[in-house]
Amino acid sequence: MSAHHPGLPIRIELLDRKRHDRVGFSCGVSALDAYLQRQAAQDMEKRAAVVYVAVMESPAIAGYYTLSQFSIELVRLPETVAKKLARYPVVSATLLGRLAVSSVWKGQRLGETLLFDALRRSLAQSAHIASAGVVVDAKDKQAAAFYQRYGFSSILDADHRLFLPMMAIQQMF
Ligand SMILES: CC(C)(COP(=O)(O)OP(=O)(O)OC[C@H]1O[C@@H](n2cnc3c(N)ncnc32)[C@H](O)[C@@H]1OP(=O)(O)O)[C@@H](O)C(=O)NCCC(=O)NCCS
Q1: Nearest one of 22, 53, 17, 21 to 37, comparing CA atoms
Q2: pTM across the whole model
Q3: pLDDT tens, residue by residue, 87-142
Q4: How far does residue 63's CA lie from ligand 1's centre (Å)?
Q5: pLDDT at 86
Q6: How open is the CA angle 143-46-61, to the nearest 5 degrees?
Q7: Fewer CB within 10 Å, N side or C side of the chain?
Q8: d(CA 5, CA 120)
Q9: Residues with CB under 6 A from ligand 1
Q10: Around Cβ 28, how many Cβ atoms within 10 Å?
Q11: What sign does the CA torsion over 50, 101, 113, 14 have?
């Protein structure tokens, strides 16, 4: 699997309120647009999340995702996943809190490119600060289906929250 679409000259960089046009971003899900417009930069400043943006033609934002540290109770993971992890009641994880692609760029593999970038980054980071896997919060069933294509499995008792073990991510790259 390739992380970058050969036809798309994208850069993925840290959100910078001075350089990126947050207001012009529209992905069709108002909560995800509003987050980028009103909260993302503040979350970065307050260390709640790191926000990465995909840029084709500056200052427009073609897509974005967020990463934070997270933890999850082992009992919430499917048994097939949990049995391969260390037997602690709570395991550390990386949260892919939000991921969205601008309506302009939908269907051109940018979602996949952003997802792979987030997974690669999470894997690299886990060599320094351990993380047993990536948790993703999908906004609905349709979005959850996108993540299931890449091997994410549902977490018990959580609406559209999914998990992919770091060992599986390591095998992807
Ligand atoms: C979901 C989203 C990120 C997909 O981005 P995208 O750039 O359009 O998707 P891609 O072109 O990278 O698609 C990669 C593959 O996933 C499939 N796919 C895309 N969206 C899908 C969905 N909702 N369900 C199932 N599969 C999906 C594509 O058909 C493609 O499949 P293929 O390999 O057979 O060609 C994008 O549509 C989006 O931003 N939606 C609104 C916000 C959202 O739902 N975010 C996710 C939850 S927070």
Answers
A1: 22
A2: 0.94
A3: 999 999 999 999 999 999 999 999 999 999 999 999 999 999 999 999 999 989 99
A4: 12
A5: 94
A6: 45
A7: N
A8: 16
A9: 27-29, 32, 98-101, 106-112, 138-139, 142-143, 145-146, 149
A10: 11
A11: negative
